[in-house]
Amino acid sequence: VEVGFTVTNSTVAATDVIIPNIASGATADSYLLGVDAVGAGSFRLTLSNTSAGNLGEAITINFAVIKAVAT
Question: Distance of CA 71 to CAs 15, 21, 68, Å?
Answer without folding.
Answer: 10, 27, 10
